[in-house]
Amino acid sequence: MKRVEMKYGSTSIEVCVKEENLIGVIESNRLKKEKSEDEIIKEALENPIGSARLRELVHQGERVCVVIPDVTRTWQKTDKYLNKIVEEINSGGALDKDIIFISALGSHRKQTREEHEKLLGEKLASRFQVIDHDCYDKDNLVYLGETTYGNSVYINKIAMECDHIVITGGIVYHLLAGYSGGKKSILPGISGAETIMKNHSLSLNDNLGESIRDGVYAGGTENNPVHQDMIQAASFVRPTFMFNVIMGSEGEIAAAVAGNYIAAHEQGTKILKNIDGVNIKEKADLVIASSGGYPKDINLYQATKTLTNAREAVNEGGYIIALLQCREGLGGGKEIQDLILNYDNILDRERFVRNNFSIGKFIAYCMCETAYKFKVILVSDIKQELVKNANITVVKTVDEALKIVYKEKGENLKTYLMPHAANTLPMLIK
Hints:
Layout: E1 2-8, E2 11-17, E3 22-25, H1 37-46, H2 54-57, E4 64-68, H3 78-91, E5 99-103, H4 113-120, H5 122-125, E6 130-132, E7 141-146, E8 152-156, H6 157-160, E9 164-170, E10 173-174, E11 178-179, H7 193-201, H8 225-237, E12 241-247, E13 253-259, H9 263-276, E14 277-280, E15 284-290, H10 304-310, E16 314-323, H11 334-341, H12 346-354, H13 359-373, E17 375-379, H14 384-387, E18 392-395, H15 398-409, E19 415-418, E20 425-428
Parallel strand pairs: 3-19, 4-5, 4-9, 5-6, 9-12, 14-20, 15-16, 15-19, 16-17, 17-18
Antiparallel strand pairs: 1-2, 7-8, 10-11, 12-13
């Protein structure tokens, strides 16, 4: 028997699978830790991709807007790298009074002073204030033009009044945009609500019942209209410089890229693939997955990525057993809970998403669509009645889940284990 410990909330559960059934354990690739986080940040800033150094691009008397993530992205360790970016800007001659920090909230909630301090770190927080972008404040938006997708681009006015815009963040796989980081600091980061919703709505096909566009998936960019529309929106803004981090399997800064917001981001996605992208030669009948424990499995909404990543390793109609504690239940706002609770078929859910589209509704829809195409069993503390309409079964132990699967399909099932599925994307080699 193959025994693997998988995280579950703040504890762990041992998962046992027959060796002859196990295709493999899908884990992120570990990079050799040859440099410290500070060395990685310094090297990226000193060796920009497709650009001169930031200190050469900014000058005395020019206003510089630094766009930073919001508090939901503190895992990117903004407090580690923002001080280095400010040092570069100061070295170019720009004074503190000419540096503005704007938090790229997109459509997220406003933040507290304490959350701003967490993002900047203690030293920078004593020198600078953070402005929260408000996508609904039309008086603080400026119209820049229209993309070829018919999206009217409205961007934060304060940012556009600056001489330079420096975008920062982290690169991970993203359900809609293919990858986070780069252009996402502009759209949705500092865009108007109308621009954000139009962009995100491109994730669905034109007609009801046709569901998600083929090109819209984690890692998809080439035929992804959401990604392409974001790139076009960013072309109106033309950020001067970008700095993005790529995190390792233990939550450390494993790599960083800086420079031109397209060329450097593209290099960053290649690094990400080498860490979190795992090639597989075949799909399985069963995938047993964990998000990696708390807080990634704090609620079902946050754990959606675990299910959507796991489905990439299983044959359609196959089984996903997901170890997700969900100590806070469904999570998300009212519309997300309505989508999960109050519909019992995928077509009505799609109709609900199309009506006043939002990213939250789309993510919840992706979870429900996964449970429509695959047989999903949760080992979880969540109540069965909360997910019964989503066609999800809830049990208390892995053994209970396996009994259900083996009774329906037999015990000789090709199986993958995914201990950190929230951060690991299986990629089938064709």
